[in-house]
Amino acid sequence: MVFVTVSSLVSFSDSDGVDIDIPNFDKVVHFCFYFGAAFLGVFFIRERTKADTPLKKSVWYAAMVAIVYGIIIEVLQYSLTTDRHGDILDALANSVGAIAGAFIAKSLFSGERWLKWKN
């Protein structure tokens, strides 16, 4: 999450990076980052609470924290940076990625599939 925060709020306008022009590719990147954050967030919550937090509640917490975090980052981009801008579509891609990541973790480890979480 530190990487996401820094890469979201630091200016890259002076860098000589590769210029790849794929329409809306940044939305795919937003989706993937937040998918991974929520997916790993479910594991983090379950491990930190020694599985005392039910899987359903862990999924809910991980998704909500990632969504709120994504919205905060977009607001900070809008208000604190000069060459970056907050985008509602980025926040939407973040949210959809977070929801997908959390629910994929739930479906993989809910006991309905071949991967089961030990209680």
UniProtKB/TrEMBL annotation:
Keyword Cell cycle listed = no
Q: Matching InterPro entries, A to Z?
A: VanZ-like
Q: Which keywords appear in this protein's UniProt record, sorted alphabetically?
A: Membrane, Transmembrane, Transmembrane helix
Source domain of life is Bacteria
Where do the TM regions start and end?
A: 27-46, 58-79, 91-109
Q: Which Pfam families does this one have? A: VanZ
Residue span(s) of domain VanZ-like? 21-106
What's the name of the protein?
A: Conserved hypothetical membrane protein
Q: Which organism is it from?
A: Zobellia galactanivorans (strain DSM 12802 / CCUG 47099 / CIP 106680 / NCIMB 13871 / Dsij)
Q: What is the lineage of its organism?
A: Bacteria, Pseudomonadati, Bacteroidota, Flavobacteriia, Flavobacteriales
